[in-house]
UniProtKB/TrEMBL annotation:
PROSITE patterns: ALDEHYDE_DEHYDR_CYS (PS00070), ALDEHYDE_DEHYDR_GLU (PS00687). This is Aldehyde dehydrogenase. SUPFAM superfamilies: ALDH-like. InterPro entries: Ald_DH/histidinol_DH (IPR016161), Ald_DH_C (IPR016163), Ald_DH_CS_CYS (IPR016160), Ald_DH_CS_GLU (IPR029510), Ald_DH_N (IPR016162), Aldehyde_DH_dom (IPR015590), Aldehyde_DH_NAD(P) (IPR012394). Belongs to the aldehyde dehydrogenase family. Residues 8-428 form the Aldehyde dehydrogenase domain. The keyword Oxidoreductase applies.
Amino acid sequence: MNEPIPALVQELRQGYEEGATRELGRRVARLRALHDAIQAAEPRILAALRADLNKTEYEAYLSEVSSLLAEIRFVVKRMKRWSRPKRVRTPATHIGSRSYVYSEPYGVALIIAPWNYPFQLAIAPLIGAIAAGNCAVVKPSELTPATAAVIREVVEGCLNDGTVRVVLGGIETAQALLAERFDCIFYTGSTAVGRQVMEAAARHLTPVTLELGGKSPCIVHADAKLEVAAMRIAWAKFFNAGQTCVAPDYVYVHRSVREPFIEALVRAIETMHRKRIEQGEFTHIVNERHYDRLQRYLGQGKLLHGGEGNRDTLLLEPTLLGEVNLEDEVMQEEIFGPILPILVYDELGEAIREIARRPKPLALYLFAESADVQRQVLQRLSFGGGCVNDAMFHLATPYLPFGGVGDSGMGAYHGRASFEAFSHRKSVLRQSTAFDMPLRYPHHKRALSFL
Ligand code: NAD
């Protein structure tokens, strides 16, 4: 049971004001404790992910455990440097002064997480919140209840000083939290709910980071190395059964290589996934509602490969669709499942124009050898982040800020960007009192000349 939300937020605020989270040594100790607790709880985390989504050990460990442990180690090593006041230049007009930018914690942060990587997406922002010195409330997704329970157990077990609380519940709980005043909000989920979160934040003028979704395109140009493109796309698209915010949502392939590309993709799917499906080692769709939504998409194009599913086990196999209509749901909504529509283009500008007409995507992937094609796509299209000749790997490096733009979100995190997402940059000018500049005062006869 959760304690009443207003009281819980009040306790966190009091703790923050008493300085429970601000001292650097304590921040480091709390992150180390979190690291060790995640490591110790690994079997329980993997079991919960298996229960909620049938996540395989390979996928669960890679995307929800090892990535977090690596992120904590990365942050702990650098946060002392990031926390130092940063000296910046001062103009000559400010003679006698020095200028600094201080990173200060916002205060009490709210983190709302989705179900697709339920452990990772609740904890990764928390690492930034703790590193920056905040207290935090984490609200995991109600659609993955076993993982939500483990999140609470792990987090409140190792951070039992009341500086971080995990609140379990669904939409009503999220709304009750959003009614409170927080100092920053970090939301991961759909664009539609992101809008509501931002409206709620506006009531208190709370800064928000919104990590949202959308349809991330993948372009395969005529000169792409087809075998490697097919392997990388089949891996990225069907990882977690396509329930990944940055999964390639659809492919635009140059007409001249459509057939060999599809053949290579089918080979890649069979090599990588067939045996895993037969052994029950393929992630399931999260629930019946999403399974039924995906089934509807199957009727909106020509089946090129796959298409088999089982509503009882929620398994849906990797599926390729051709001849889709741009106005159909499958090309209007984020697919978020193992269905990949394949569209063709004759000339690069055609694909670029069609992508540019749509909301700005969270990710974009281009497979092309030509430097000119790469330059055109990177210059003409706006997207959160992406890869040239790869897919999804851009989010697995702590050196690249990860986030969306436009409908796919605002703000970014991972590595230093996480520390910054939870910090206010406070600008301070330190002036000397050893002398005073008479020119600045209005009664001086050359008052304007020093500017
Ligand atoms: P969702 O928006 O339905 O739910 C996410 C969280 O918001 C949950 O904790 C839920 O309880 C809460 N919530 C739901 N409705 C709410 C409401 N009306 N008011 C307040 N809170 C509410 O999203 P989801 O289905 O869990 O996740 C899928 C979406 O998230 C996809 O669009 C995907 O692309 C996106 N996503 C984005 C990222 C990213 O990093 N950008 C990562 C994962 C998922």
